[in-house]
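Here is one chain, start to finish.
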Amino acid sequence: MPGAAEPLTCRGLYRELCRAFEAAGFPGAALEARELLCAGTCRTREALLRDGPLTREEAETVRALAERHLAGEPVAYLIGEWAFYGLPLTVTPAVLIPRVDTEVLAGEAIAFLEAQGPCRALDLCAGSGCVGLALADQVPACRVVLGELSPEALAVCGENVRRCGLENRAEVRRLDALRPPPEDLGRFSCIVCNPPYIPDGDIPDLDGSVRDFEPHMALRGGADGLDFYRAIVRDWRRVLLPGGRLYFEVGIGQAEAVRALLDAGGFTGTAVVPDGQGIDRVVSGAVPGT
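Its structure:
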């Protein structure tokens, strides 16, 4: 009689997912396989390292998640969370998935704020709140306002404030970056902003994992992708204190255009910082001091 089939293990299913994701050309195959295994089996990463058999139901759940990912759905939406700057964040299709490139934006602002003493910062177009919460977490003397227009994204922001235990350092407020700031907002040492910057005409050509799943409200930047930069430079400088700094994330090829907007808007000391791939990613400028 043939022997009984060996039980499927965590390690075996992990290898199966890695092979499938690598064959599909996914650059983060190993990470994605691990995250889906954790989510589908309700096991920690440490438990996966210890290996062990899987039930049929666990294997079916993981494989179903893997099929959805192979069809284009991002892992972050499948598991409902993603990490940014060491913080575990809730992520839903109402917000963009936090990306490593955006950690450059957070890092530049953190370095600036650490020298300010007690201060306030504004994360405009906050989405999941990832950048502003990184500031609040890394700079204890800073109090952060997470400004966002979408009600669904605001709910995610609020959940992430609680999840990160930053209720005493961060608050959520509904703000429209395309309109002037409300009079009662107060003033800030720093504004960070990762605005919608994809030219509207480029949306149909985006990778399907972005085009079909991430919120278009957080992508569309107008005909040339610069609508939000123009409005923020024009209207939001007034809430920055003298010497305060505005930090933008920008898309590929947009850095010099955004820097020119800052220069024309009266900002000084403008600078461009590349990401880890050498792509100009962060553009900033300061309000002249007194």
